[in-house]
Amino acid sequence: MADYQGVLICGEVVEGRITSITTELLDTGRRLCDDLNQPLSVLLIGQNISEIAKEAILLGADKVYTVDGAPFAESYPERYAAIITKACQQIAPSVILLGQTDMGRDLAPRLAAKLGTTACMDCVELAIDSETRALLQTKPVYGGNAMAVWVSEGYQPQVVTMRPRVVAPAEPDASRKGEVVPITIDVDDSAIKGKLVRRSRKRLRG
Amino acid sequence: MNIIVCVKQILDPEIPPAKFKLDSESKRVVPPEGIPPVINPYDEQAVELAIRLKEKYEGKITVLSLGSDAAASIVKHALAMGADDGAVLTDKAFDGSDSFAIAYILTKAIQKVGDYDLVLCGRQAADWDEGVVGSIIAESLGSPLVTLAKEIDVADGELKVKRVTLAGYQVFAVPMPALVTVSNEVGQPRLPSGWGIISAAKKEIPRWGAGDIDADPSQVGAGASRRKLAKLFIPARERKCEIVEGEETAEAAVKLATRLRESGVI
Question: In the CATH scheme, what architecture does the domain A7-185 have?
């Protein structure tokens, strides 16, 4: 039985920068880990990301795991999910945090299914219950007419996505120390059926 | 090309907020009086996409709905639109199922139907707004999965699926059988024809219980839930109105954009 510890953020790197949702997850993750007294890690998949990894430490991560590979937008999601699943099995976090983004929406349910655990999508608040120490996951339901607070029935790791622009991004702290850990993940490509054929490259301005 | 579409009956998501009522004790939404439940809009779009594929490539569309006995009405709605067959999955043993148990029940039903090239699900249900069931079914079936599709074509014996993203789209090639979740960018679902409605009304919709799909009792119902609902509430709403002024419309627009930027909305 794995001992699940800490929060792991599946970060997003776009055009050589950590995305704003990732910095928001760092803010939330840091707060949860300070409360739980457990480590905050980030998983980044990309090319030449060692400098970006250091940036994530200044933003609150205790550890940043880096995997050399194509970012989500250039990957076949099933393959990307296979990489993250293996990383999560190695790292064994108690909570896996993603953004409710193109990537998070797609990956979170896959991860939960592959890891045999639970998922809660589009959360607007995450907090630790002061008595039970359970993760309280608050999210809008019925089109925003109501709010639901969900708690996992002991399933770990808990996969959670957070809605962008609900919390402020983490502020860099130049005095923060942490560790960058490059890891290698092998994926059996013969077991993966499908591929990315093309994508639009519309640039969002502003 | 044989297609299975999973559809869910939900409380009408278009009801005005003033009519939206909760029972916070039982943690349930109180069904509004006089407003009938509807087919989940995203699932209706999945039916629409299935029919477009049937028109192009021929084949059979089977519709499955997990819910109460009354879900037969949305199966009939799908038949009236142009689907061929359907069944309602209903059993007391299924009550209180979470997303994983729901996915398990639908997976068993899909396996009972058998002989399919594509399973379509709406991207999320407009009641609980989770968006996980389709993906979990794909994982259980061992099928390739593409989420948030707006278009599907067949080429070289494979599906070409266009997925909607914030920056535009991605196109994936996946072998069949596959599962695709469908987004609203598919467009307006067709209205059933008069003839469609009449012929669907005459059809007998079978009900399948736990025994019919060979469901493992430990995987269904409230007992199998992986999470629990701690609280359900209506958030307090505060109304503040700030008027942005300017000598010219263009000036006011620039000020508004700046204001939205400052408050983090854009």
Answer: 3-Layer(aba) Sandwich (3.40)
